[in-house]
Design goal:
The protein is an alpha+beta fold and about 160 residues long. It is built from five helices and four strands; from the N terminus they run ααβαββαβα. It folds into two domains: about 40 residues; about 110 residues, Endonuclease, Chain A, CATH 3.40.960. The chain is about 50% helix and about 15% strand. It has a four-stranded mixed beta sheet with strand order 1-2-3-4. The protein is elongated, with a radius of gyration of 26 Å.
């Protein structure tokens, strides 16, 4: 390409146009990097369910095709405290927001039929009992299955419908 006044002008115009397009994007990335407690280049993704959870999810959908199956739900989305003591309620609800249940089986109106936990070696029996008590108090049935023995569809139906 021969460099003449017209080519230089066209090149400068193109660069200006790209700068105009890219400037807001670059500014946003710089702003995020400046205000975040982490480097945005360190963010990545993974599948939201582990392989055993994916197996159980598919089985739940097969067993309950007319139901809603939710996974990895914060307890804070469906539990609230009602002790009459606002400070105590806030503390309990903060705890709920930090905890997750592996699955919720709901009817078509989103009424909870059962909560399901898929337990692995990382589960603490003492903490699990406390969590089970929370579900009991709330009136929600909790079913626990071991990750090493994911139930087949017949057992799932039996356990959840009995």
């Amino acid at each position: 390409m021969e460099l003449n006044a017209m080519n230089i002008y066209n090149l400068a115009t193109s660069i200006t146009a790209w700068a105009f397009i890219l400037e807001p994007i670059v500014a946003k990335v710089i702003k995020i990097r400046r205000h975040a407690n982490f480097d945005v280049t360190e963010i990545n993704w993974t599948q939201p369910l582990t392989k055993p959870e994916q197996i159980l999810y598919r089985r739940l959908i097969n067993v309950f095709p007319d139901h809603i199956i939710l996974s990895q739900v914060s307890l804070g989305r469906f539990l609230y405290a009602n002790s009459g003591n606002p400070k105590k309620d806030i503390t309990m609800e903060e705890t709920f927001r930090q905890k997750m249940v592996d699955f919720l089986v709901c009817d078509n109106e989103f009424n909870i039929i059962s909560a399901i936990e898929l337990d692995d070696g990382s589960h603490d029996k003492k903490k699990d009992k406390k969590r089970d008590l929370i579900f009991f108090i709330a009136g929600i049935r909790i079913v626990r299955w071991n990750i090493e023995a994911i139930p087949n569809e017949y057992k799932i139906r039996d356990d959840l419908l009995s």
